[in-house]
Amino acid sequence: MTNAASDLPANSNAASTETDHSKLSLLGTFGLISKHGILMVEFANELLHRDHLDRITAIRTAAGIRFRPIIMTTGAMVVELLPLVMASDAGANSRFGLGNVIVVGTIVGTTMTLFVVPSVYTVIWPRHSKTV
C-alpha cells in the first residue's frame, strides 16, 4: 500500500518520526560529550598557565581530575535510560531506538573524550601557543 501523494509506503511517517527522535537525542548527547571535552581542556589550560606545567602533564592531570565526574555523568545517563531500552510494553520499539541511540552515543562519546581529546590537545597545543 502506497501513499498516492508521495509514492512512499503508508507507514513511512513512523520511520521518519523515529529518525527525528534519534536525531534529537544525538543532539543532546553531543552537548553532554562536548561539555566533558571543554571542561577537560579548560582544566588543562588553567594548569598550564597557573602551575606552569608542560602540556602533556597538564592534560594528563586534567584528565585525571575530570575522570570521575565524566564517568559519573555518563553512568547516570546510561542508568536513567535503561528503562527506555528495556521496555516491553506498547510503543517499546520506538523508545528502544531512542534509548539505544543515546546510550551507545554517550558511551562512545565518553570513550572518545577520555582518549581522543587529550591526544588532540597535545598535538594542537604547540600550534595554538605560537599564535597566541
| Straight-line distance between termini | 63 Å
Query: Beta-strand level of the residues, as a percent range?
Result: under 5%
Average pLDDT figure: 80
Task: Give me the strand/helix succession.
Answer: HHH
Q: What does the overall shape look like?
A: elongated
Relative helix content:
over 70%
Give the number of DSSP strands.
Answer: 0
User: Which spans have pLDDT < 50 for at least 5 consecutive residues?
Assistant: none
Broad structural category: mainly alpha
The value of Rg in angstroms is 21 Å
Number of helices: 3
Main β-sheet, in a few words? none
Please summarize what this structure is.
This protein has 132 residues and is mainly alpha-helical. The protein is 83% helix and 0% strand.
Break the fold down into its secondary structure elements and pairings:
Elements: H1 12-50, H2 55-85, H3 92-131
Helix pairs in contact: 1-2, 1-3, 2-3
